[in-house]
Write a structure and sequence with these properties.
Helix content is about 25%, strand content about 30%. The chain has about 110 residues and is of the alpha+beta class. The longest helix has 12 residues. The chain starts with a helix and ends with a strand.
Length: about 110
C-alpha cells in the first residue's frame, strides 16, 4: 500500500497540472509548419483512474512532404508520453522545402 502511494505521488509530481478540460496542442516554434491534420491522443485508462492531468512535450521530425518521420519525448508524465507520441506520429503538416523539427505540447485533463 505504501509503495502504491509513493508511485501515485511520483506520477503526480512528474507532470504539470493545467486547467483545460480537453486535450490541446500547440507548436512552440515561431516558424512552425502549419498542421493540416491532427489526431487526438487517447487518454490512458490508468491516467483516468489516477485522475492524472499534465502537459507532454514531444519533438516531431517532419519530412518535406509533411509526414511525421519520428517523435521524441521531451518531457511530461511517463503515463501520458506514449499516448502523445502515438497521436503526433499520425499528424500531417503542410509540405515544405526541407525536413523540420516541431516542438509540440499536448495538454491532458481527465475532466
Amino acid at each position: 500500500m505504501r509503495v502504491r502511494h509513493l508511485l501515485i505521488l511520483f506520477f503526480l509530481l512528474s507532470c504539470c497540472f493545467v486547467a483545460s478540460k480537453t486535450v490541446q496542442s500547440q507548436s512552440s516554434s515561431s516558424e512552425s509548419r502549419h498542421v493540416v491534420r491532427k489526431a487526438l491522443p487517447v487518454y490512458p485508462e490508468i491516467a483516468r483512474r489516477m485522475n492524472l492531468a499534465g502537459t507532454v512535450r514531444v519533438l516531431a521530425t517532419v519530412a518535406p512532404d509533411g509526414t511525421v518521420k519520428s517523435v521524441q519525448p521531451m518531457g511530461g508524465s511517463p503515463v501520458l508520453i506514449q499516448s502523445a507520441s502515438d497521436a503526433v506520429s499520425k499528424w500531417k503538416f503542410a509540405p515544405a522545402g526541407a525536413e523540420s523539427k516541431e516542438l509540440i505540447e499536448l495538454h491532458f485533463d481527465p475532466r
